[in-house]
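[09:14] KT: can someone run the structure on this one? pasting the chain below
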Amino acid sequence: MAERAVTAPAGASALEAGGPPAPAGERASRPVTARPTRRRRRTSRSRWALRLVAMGYVGILVALPVGLVLWRTIDQGAATFVEAISGPEAIAAFRLTAIVAGSAVVINTVFGVGAALLLARYRFRGRRLMDVLIDLPISVSPIIVGLALILAFGWTTGWFGPALQAGGVQLIFATPGMVLATAFVSLPLVVREVLPVLTETGLEQDQAARSLGANAVQRFRRITLPTIKWALAYGVVLSVARALGEFGAVRVVSGNVGGQTQTVTLLVDERAEQFEPGAYQLSVVLIAVAALSIVIISIIRPREQSEK
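[09:31] RB: done, structure tokens below
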């Protein structure tokens, strides 16, 4: 980089600027050269140190374990991979995982956008409490979430259990309970992506459209949705990845019955505990789906933003 030439202030000496002494009549107008080399070296060293720390942290905690799973999968061969993911239990687990994750993501998309609109555009009593409660699933253990759902909807001990049983509705140890548990733990991912965009956008466009006679559906479809579409897409992708890998809450409310209430994560846990083949192969499928979704949305999102 070329050195930056600056003009010394009228009262500054050449020695303070790092240059040779100048005649008294030329001190006020003689250009001097700044020497930020030492500062640049310190900045460069700090940048490299932070980069090494960040890359080492991510490498040890994320890349190394995932890489070992991939290596064990490849080491056991393609035939073992196909056999592990095509068995009856695996197919049933994949089907149930898709149902549970898909249903939870739809629920989170609808209620997540609604909650974000409510928090961004309205002031009401209890708003801060609602804002805090939305983040609660991130801080609470999924095991506790499962126990809470059993206390609320369990057939014998739950508050609503007897009424649900009388109506022939079974939530706990069935697919609906697994959907509720998955939606609970992944709800903040949609809200926290959409809410900052709505807050930054403000109400001006919405109020202008309202003054022109647009109803709520038209304002949402033509103003709100185009504004939040990429934040919503990223939140949905994160929610999908979280839903596919959910284990603790689903483990408590599902009963873990093979072929009936056993998702892929539960099947992986079972095979790993019993030293049965297939745990690594099933894990790789979950990792691939989640990583591919995040990579695709990460590539598309900046490209769309740069076109604006």
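[09:33] KT: thanks! The longest strand covers residues 5-7.
[09:34] RB: yep, looked fine to me
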